[in-house]
Each structure stands twice: as structure tokens, then as C-alpha cells.
Design goal:
Elements: H1 3-10, H2 14-22, E1 29-30, E2 37-38, H3 41-55, H4 60-68, H5 73-108, H6 115-134, H7 141-148, H8 152-155, H9 163-177, E3 184-188, H10 194-200, E4 205-210, H11 213-222, E5 228-230, E6 243-249, H12 257-270, E7 271-281, H13 285-297, E8 301-306, E9 312-317
Parallel strand pairs: 3-4, 3-6, 4-5, 6-7
Antiparallel strand pairs: 1-2, 7-9, 8-9
Length: 321
């Protein structure tokens, strides 16, 4: 089948097929006599995958990975996890830009704004994007997961936390959240699911968010019935105003102060009015004071409680409707 016939069959342009060939996604043979490309059944099958994945929004590098992973369920799932996380980060960024533009247009009321007004509107967006783009994992969480399995989250902590204190902190976090049957909630930085499982035991519909593919694999093996999304706290791969509660245990110490502030803004975005938040970690007192103040600025009710081993629990409730 020639390029125009293949394009017509697939509902795309010949130019698109040539582009996919240029990017190495498909390699049709050429007729020895005419030099025309000839798309065989296998080529058309590959193109069907490419076209469908493009419609789902996947960038070319992810499509290339997906094509090579088609025969390996776990690899394919990991590729989709990574693609979803990237697409959600783009969506979060675009949503913030649209919200800022709407606020600006409302304040301008039909007049042309001064350049200073535009710059003031754009500055917070630039700062948040800079923080997100500079983020990188400071530990090899995948390697820790392979070595320590479900104990990996505990082993990432520095200085080390006593295992008994760690367990007590998880129990306290779950108790303060007080998840109820059927409630939609989150475990942020869920690791291998140590807090997630406790929250879900109440009958709540708990979703984990974790950036490490190896941690995700372990959590899925331990709690196959619980959804977990790949992503980090700076751009949660989740819809806005959806969740009744959010918990996070020992994830914030892996973030800088500016990153923690952005994480709080993301948590606020996904919590419903009246939503409950419990953050447990071992940070210096100033870090928890700064987070508490940031939440109070957004009219949250906030309580902090010291736990054993220098661990602190911050509990907050978002203003209700």
C-alpha cells in the first residue's frame, strides 16, 4: 500500500506518515523499481498505534517507548505512567496561565494594561515554573525500593527514624485524617503504600501519588485494588477540587522550602472545600511554622502536634463552602 492510500485508511495526512518515518517510529520498505514506500500489514498496525497514542496526547519520545514495550505489560504501564505525569504537569501549568489571564482581563476591563501589570501577572507563573523545572529527586528512590522493598520509605530518611516511631507516626496521621468509608482521599508521596494501606482500611477510596516507578510497582503488588499515579507534589497529576482528605508522611523532607510552598498550593488545588490535610515529617520547627502560616493565610484551620522521635504532625482543614 502506498503512502496516500495508507494515509487515507488511517485518517491522517501523507505528511504525518512521513514525519513518523523521519522520527524512526515506522520504517516501510521501498519498492525496488519505483522507489515508492510500501506499507505492509505490520507497518499499518504500527501506524494505528502511533495515531491512537498521538490522539491521546503522547509526545513522540513516549510513543517510541510505548511501541517497543507493547509485548511487555509492565514496561508499557510504566511508559503510560510517565506520559500521564508529563501531560498533567502541562495541564496544570496551562490551567494556571488561563486562571491568571482571566484575572487580568477582569481587572483590565477592556483597557490595554501597562507592561508593569502584565509583568506582575506573569511573575508568579514564571517563579512556579522555575521551581518545578529545577526539581529533581535527591535520592535514588528506585534503587532504595529494590533493596528494601516495603521498608524503602523508612530507609530514605536522614537522619534515620526509629522504626517504632515511624509506625506510631503513620498511625497518628491516619487517626487525625479519620478517613471515612467511600471518601475520596490521597496519600502524597505514597512510597510503597505504608500510609495508603492504613487510610484505605477505613473503606475510603484512596489514591497514591508517587514519583518512583519502583516504589509504584511495590505498592501495586501490595495493594492491587488501590490506584496510584506517577507524579510529584509540585504538579499533582490530579483534577482540582476532588478529594476530601490528603495525607503525606515523610515526603516533605525531600523538598526545599520553596518546593514545599508550591506543594501546599497544589494540595490546596485538589482538596474540596472543608477538606482535611495531615502532614507528618521530621523537619525543623521553622519549616512547620512556615507551612502553618502559609495555610492560615489561605484561611485554613491549623494545628501542629509533636510526636516521638522529633517528628511533627500538622493537621489542617480547608475553609468550607
Amino acid at each position: 500500500m502506498k503512502v496516500h492510500e495508507a494515509a487515507r485508511l488511517l485518517g491522517v495526512t501523507p505528511r504525518a506518515l512521513r514525519f513518523y518515518e523521519e522520527r524512526g517510529l515506522v520504517a516501510p520498505a521501498k519498492d525496488a523499481g519505483s522507489g515508492y514506500r510500501q506499507y505492509e500489514t505490520e507497518d499499518l498496525e504500527t501506524l494505528r498505534w502511533i495515531v491512537a497514542l498521538r490522539e491521546l496526547g503522547l509526545p513522540i519520545p513516549f510513543i517510541a517507548d510505548a511501541l517497543t514495550a507493547r509485548e511487555d505489560d509492565e514496561r508499557f504501564r510504566q511508559t503510560m505512567d510517565r506520559a500521564r505525569a508529563e501531560l498533567y504537569e502541562q495541564w496544570v501549568d496551562l490551567s494556571r496561565r488561563l486562571e491568571s489571564l482571566d484575572r487580568g482581563m477582569e481587572s483590565w476591563r477592556g483597557r490595554t494594561p501597562a507592561i508593569g501589570e502584565l509583568e506582575a501577572l506573569a511573575a508568579p507563573l514564571k517563579e512556579k515554573r522555575s521551581i518545578r523545572s529545577a526539581w529533581s529527586a535527591r535520592l535514588d528512590f528506585d534503587d532504595m525500593a529494590v533493596k528494601y522493598r516495603e521498608d524503602a520509605p523508612l530507609m530514605t530518611l536522614s537522619p534515620p527514624v526509629d522504626p517504632h516511631d515511624y509506625e506510631e507516626a503513620l498511625i497518628a496521621t491516619a487517626d487525625w485524617i479519620d478517613a471515612r468509608p467511600g471518601e475520596a482521599g490521597l496519600d502524597l508521596g505514597s512510597g510503597t503504600g505504608n500510609l495508603t494501606g492504613r487510610l484505605a482500611a477505613s473503606g475510603a477510596a484512596v489514591t497514591g501519588v508517587e514519583q518512583s516507578p519502583a516504589m509504584i510497582r511495590i505498592m501495586r503488588s501490595r495493594f492491587p485494588e488501590l490506584p496510584v499515579k506517577q507524579g510529584n507534589l509540585l504538579a499533582l497529576p490530579l483534577p482540582a477540587r476532588t478529594y476530601r482528605f490528603a495525607g503525606s508522611s515523610f515526603a516533605l523532607q525531600h523538598l526545599r522550602e520553596d518546593e514545599r510552598m508550591l506543594a501546599l498550593a497544589e494540595i490546596d488545588r485538589v482538596l474540596l472545600p472543608g477538606g482535611r490535610l495531615a502532614l507528618t515529617d521530621r523537619l525543623d520547627g521553622g519549616a512547620f511554622s512556615a507551612m502553618a502560616e502559609a495555610l492560615r493565610t489561605q484561611h485554613y484551620s491549623v494545628v501542629t502536634k509533636p510526636l516521638r522521635g522529633g517528628i511533627t504532625l500538622l493537621y489542617a482543614v480547608k475553609p468550607g463552602p
